[in-house]
């Protein structure tokens, strides 16, 4: 029986090549989409899930009331970790961490004590860090590696670079830094961090090293550190949150901040907050693509069933002949189901091959490093899809056709109910509603990304590079010379850059200007509302900082070397002046962290955060020392390559020649803020195209079935004098009506979805009518092109063929 059915399967492929091709292309395309999205979703869901104590590992966040609502920040007070451990029995371990984000992403120089230097991502952590987090050690004891102040734990890659071996315990390295620099003993080596870890670093230093240089971290008024705690098993997180919420008031009842505990592994996907509560994050993309995968798979599967049904309607006489020679209904049903399962199997094999082939390109678009591994859940899913789709596609025609009488079978007659005409039309509407929504969504996302690209930020980000100055020293090739020099002469280095041909201007600064800044409530001024703390973003920059970025000065002046007391001055943007309710601000005095400062200038508003938020209130202070050790250089347009070469030479002449010169373009940093949105837009574009392709295949399948079902009607119309063109219009108009209904349903839904997405941006494009009309016209045009070929073919058939049995 199996051998016989296999022969029939391959024979039918030969007889119906076009139908087979449409079936396989549609099904395999849907499976390719579903597989790609599944791999992406599984990777997203796996981030930070590898920690063995993950269900008990939580991060403490801080909620701060502001005039614009509650701001949630992961920066907390330095003493918090130890206080929670001491005062809450639910806490069994805690760790204070200052990761690389505190240093604005700066990479530091580590040396083997000689002339070899390597850039390193460093962080500080409390002694229990490696007990709480699962970062396995190749060498060292998790409980002891951070027990001593001069200890450092490095990655196996860094150990190999510095010492040409991973067994580096006991060896000494040099950190070249003016504040934290010195000799450290390697106490442990950790394995290569998994790619699905949100924390990525090369070296971990003892937290006490940082505290020794920054006493503010012992102060409950200062929020700089990240705080992590490990809870006892079965601790109720909701109850724990209630207990710690107002804990800060036990230190000072006037502190307005409250605390919020969130599981560490949830932070990656659930990292957005509104008024102090979790309000989405990357999980929205996971849900979006999961829904897209499900819709595409449903469309592909039902299309497959439709095509199988349409194809079955051409095999009525075959069934009649088989029944006339004694074939049983059971064997006929088995034949149809087996053919369908084999067809789906072919589609799945092709889909797996295509996914394997295109995975590198998909990784390039998605920014992932996915692999097609034979995960048990993935295999079970594939088997499930194969059986369900195969059985569903074969069962309906099998049940109906195997029940036909011999007479009807030999005559090739179908009952009117065969094919579920209403259900088929409903499917077409569903498919094109989805297509219209996807078309509109892709257009809106791309238009918003273009808007962001062209948005005036209040400063000129083009032709600007920035880099970390590292640590300055003489060109002697000795690490100790670098360390001893310090960074107090940073202005001298900046002046050398200003004098370099091709350089328009240069300055030093603390932050990177791109969603990377400090915030504080430590400002007081005359008339301030004492009931509510106002939050300000802070930027520390050197001379010519405003000029280098080409910000526009509204009133007053910028920092100048002509005046001797500039470090006692302060500059605000318009939003900050508005928040303070200050009129005629120039010359007025405010208090910053206990020190009086005179307002000397106001710049026009500029964006340093993502456009999801309105312009932040910002103040700028002068810093010409190593505290603001990043360097920003504006170059003359069209001279980038030559000027970069000159800047590199100045850098290497001033620093040790072995020190690597690494820089960033400011406009690229800006683009990186929206990397997730751009990747989502790119993926959506491809998935939308594939969904439309599958929808068109479904429409084509319905056109085939309709033509077959109305063959006699078409023949009669032609005999009575209708032209082929009239018949074509008649057949096409039915599908045009379905697509128009789809457009009328899809456009309002697309509008609501687009409006909701854009509402997340403080600055966004207006929703223009042509976005929606264009999508509707495009859907209709695609549908008519798809149906037209089949309608023309049916209209030009010989009417004798349709009336032969009459």
TrEMBL record:
Protein localization: Cell membrane
One Pfam family here: MacB_PCD
Domain ABC3 transporter permease C-terminal: 291-404, 687-799
Domain MacB-like periplasmic core: residue ranges: 21-246, 433-644
Molecular function as annotated in GO: transmembrane transporter activity
Membrane topology type: Multi-pass membrane protein
Cellular component aspect of the GO annotation: plasma membrane
PANTHER family in the record: ABC-TYPE MACROLIDE FAMILY EXPORT SYSTEM PERMEASE COMPONENT 2 (PTHR30572:SF18), MEMBRANE COMPONENT OF TRANSPORTER-RELATED (PTHR30572)
Protein name (record): ABC transporter permease
Assigned keywords, A-Z: Cell membrane, Membrane, Transmembrane, Transmembrane helix
Top-level taxonomy: Bacteria, Pseudomonadati, Bacteroidota, Flavobacteriia, Flavobacteriales
Membrane-crossing segments per the record: 20-42, 285-305, 332-359, 379-407, 427-446, 686-705, 735-754, 769-787
């Amino acid at each position: 029986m199996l051998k016989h059915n296999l022969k029939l399967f391959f024979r039918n492929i030969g007889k119906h090549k076009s139908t087979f091709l449409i079936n396989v292309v549609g099904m395999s395309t849907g499976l390719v989409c579903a597989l790609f999205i599944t791999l992406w979703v599984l990777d997203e869901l796996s981030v930070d899930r590898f920690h063995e104590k993950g269900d008990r590992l939580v991060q403490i966040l801080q909620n701060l009331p502001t005039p614009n609502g509650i701001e949630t920040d992961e920066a907390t007070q330095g003493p918090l970790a130890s206080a929670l451990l001491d005062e809450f029995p639910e806490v069994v371990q805690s760790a204070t961490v200052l990761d690389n984000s505190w240093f604005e992403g700066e990479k530091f120089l580590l040396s083997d004590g000689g002339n070899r230097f390597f850039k390193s991502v460093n962080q500080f952590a409390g002694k229990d860090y490696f007990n709480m987090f699962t970062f396995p050690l190749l060498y060292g004891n998790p409980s002891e590696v951070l027990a001593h102040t001069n200890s450092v734990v490095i990655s196996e890659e860094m150990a190999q670079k510095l010492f040409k071996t991973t067994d580096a315990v006991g060896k000494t390295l040099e950190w070249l830094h003016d504040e934290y620099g010195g000799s450290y003993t390697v106490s442990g080596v950790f394995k290569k961090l998994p790619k699905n870890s949100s924390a990525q670093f090369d070296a971990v230093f003892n937290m006490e090293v940082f505290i020794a240089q920054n006493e503010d971290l012992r102060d409950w008024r200062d929020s700089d550190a990240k705080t992590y705690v490990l809870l006892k098993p079965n601790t109720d997180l909701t109850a724990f949150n209630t207990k710690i919420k107002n804990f800060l008031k036990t230190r000072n009842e006037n502190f307005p901040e409250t605390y919020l505990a969130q599981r560490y592994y949830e932070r990656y996907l659930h990292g957005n907050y509104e008024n102090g509560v979790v309000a989405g994050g990357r999980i929205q993309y996971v849900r979006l693509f999961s829904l897209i995968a499900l819709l595409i798979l449903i469309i592909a599967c039902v299309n497959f069933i439709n095509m199988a049904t349409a194809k079955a309607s051409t095999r009525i006489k075959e069934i009649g002949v088989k029944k006339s020679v004694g074939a049983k209904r059971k064997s006929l049903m088995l034949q149809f189901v087996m053919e369908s399962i084999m067809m789906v199997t072919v589609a799945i094999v092709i889909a797996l091959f295509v996914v394997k082939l295109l995975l590198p390109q998909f990784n390039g678009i998605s920014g992932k490093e996915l692999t097609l591994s034979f995960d048990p859940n993935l295999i079970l899913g594939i088997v499930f899809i194969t059986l369900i789709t195969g059985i569903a596609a074969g069962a309906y025609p099998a049940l109906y056709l195997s029940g036909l009488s011999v007479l009807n079978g030999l005559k090739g007659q179908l009952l009117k109910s065969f094919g579920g005409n209403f259900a088929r039309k409903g499917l077409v509407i569903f498919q094109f509603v989805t297509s219209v929504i996807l078309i509109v969504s892709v257009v809106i996302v791309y238009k918003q990304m273009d808007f962001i690209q062209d948005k005036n930020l209040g400063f000129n980000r083009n032709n600007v590079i920035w880099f970390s100055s590292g640590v300055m020293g003489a060109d002697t090739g000795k690490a100790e010379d670098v360390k001893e020099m310090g960074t107090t002469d940073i202005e001298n280095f900046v002046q050398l850059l200003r004098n370099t041909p091709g350089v328009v201007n240069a300055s030093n600064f603390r932050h990177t200007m791109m969603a990377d800044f400090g915030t504080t409530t430590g400002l007081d001024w005359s008339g301030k509302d004492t009931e509510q703390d106002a939050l300000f973003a802070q930027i520390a920059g050197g001379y010519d900082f405003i000029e280098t970025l080409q910000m526009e000065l509204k009133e007053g002046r910028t920092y100048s070397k002509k005046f001797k007391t500039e470090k006692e001055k302060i500059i605000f943007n318009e939003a900050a002046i508005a928040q303070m309710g200050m009129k005629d601000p120039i010359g007025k005095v405010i208090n910053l962290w206990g020190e009086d400062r005179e307002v000397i200038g106001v710049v026009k508003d500029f964006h340093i955060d993502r456009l999801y938020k309105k312009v932040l209130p910002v103040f700028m202070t002068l810093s010409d020392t190593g505290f603001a050790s990043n360097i920003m250089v504006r170059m003359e347009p069209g001279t980038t390559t030559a000027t970069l070469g000159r800047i590199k030479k100045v850098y290497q002449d001033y620093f040790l020649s072995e020190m690597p010169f690494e820089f960033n373009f400011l406009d690229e940093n800006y683009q990186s803020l929206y990397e997730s949105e751009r990747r989502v837009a790119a993926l959506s574009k491809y998935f939308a195209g594939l969904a439309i392709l599958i929808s068109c295949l479904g429409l084509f399948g319905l056109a085939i079935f309709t033509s077959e079902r109305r063959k006699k009607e078409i023949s009669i119309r032609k005999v009575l004098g209708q032209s082929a063109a009239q018949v074509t219009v008649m057949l096409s108009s039915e599908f045009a009506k379905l697509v128009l209904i789809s457009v009328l349903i899809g456009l309002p839904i697309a509008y609501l979805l687009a409006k909701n997405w854009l509402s997340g941006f403080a600055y966004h494009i207006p929703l223009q009518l042509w976005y929606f009309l264009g999508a509707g016209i495009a859907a209709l045009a695609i549908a008519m092109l798809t149906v037209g070929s089949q309608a023309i073919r049916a209209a030009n058939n010989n009417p004798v063929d349709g009336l032969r049995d009459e």
